[in-house]
Specification:
By secondary structure, this protein is of the alpha/beta class. Helices cover about 35% and strands about 25% of the residues. It starts with 12 loop residues before the first strand and ends with a helix.
């Protein structure tokens, strides 16, 4: 199978998760999550606040250790990997809230994204690609990150992730706090990035925008997968029930 619960992964699967559980201390945040992310595709994970979406991305990125289950990337189990190890394998993350370095300039923020030995030699060429994708960043290259608008900071966070030359990017709440026009522009840029072959996992609360962009979607509710399917196959009523748990 190409999409679905993650059992019996095909060679086309970039990321596979089987029966993943994650705890914050004594609190269980994820319960037996299984899903499959095909190579080069866009997969959306939607759900209300507290559904476990960000926890799932952090577990994939190595920021949270799984309690049980398995995370597989390109055929290799990456359970217990640290963030720098997952990044070395080509998995980058654009975190919720952007988290740019406020005391660095735009260009310095981008340079930080290319700290891996394999990316340093191509840093200038990749930076030019980022500037082509987001021209406003070139215009503001010498400005401090804190002088950027929220939308520009999101572009910078995406650009920083691209500097690591990833094959997979995890986007956490990419539209949070942004104006509709800016969100539209950023999603256009995401499609451009995806067309270069980058696999994408997009965590969102904006259900309609997410379903219009993704080729497959998972709806999370209280730490579990409540619904999954191709966007065209998911009815509005089914999504609403899964999203709110009603």
């Amino acid at each position: 199978m190409l999409y679905g619960s993650g059992r019996g992964f095909m060679s086309s699967t970039c990321l596979g998760i089987q029966n993943l559980s994650v705890h914050y201390g004594d609190l269980q945040a994820l319960w037996d999550i299984s899903l499959s992310i095909p190579t080069g595709r866009i997969v959306s994970i939607i759900g209300a606040n507290g559904a476990g979406k960000s926890t799932l991305l952090k577990a994939i990125a190595g920021a949270l250790p799984p309690t049980s289950g398995e995370i597989v990337h390109d055929g290799r189990t990456i359970n217990g990997f640290k963030p720098y190890q997952t990044l070395s394998r080509g998995i980058a993350m654009v975190p919720e809230g952007r988290r740019i370095f406020p005391r660095l300039t735009v260009e310095e923020n981008l340079q930080v994204g290319a700290y891996l030995p394999r990316t340093r030699k191509n840093a200038r060429q990749v930076m030019e690609k980022v500037y082509h994708l987001f021209p406003v960043l070139r215009a503001r290259a010498r400005q401090m990150g804190t002088n950027l608008s929220g939308g520009e900071q999101q572009m910078l966070a995406i650009g920083r992730a691209l500097m690591s030359e990833p094959t997979v990017i995890l986007f956490d709440e990419i539209s949070l706090g942004l104006a509709p026009r800016i969100i539209k522009d950023i999603y256009v840029s995401l499609l451009e990035i995806n067309q270069t072959g980058v696999t994408m996992v997009i965590v969102e609360q904006d259900v309609q925008r997410s379903l219009k962009t993704a080729e497959y979607a998972y709806v999370m509710q209280e730490g579990r997968i409540a619904l999954e399917g191709r966007p065209g196959e998911l009815t509005e009523e089914a999504v609403r029930k899964a999203y709110f748990g009603v």
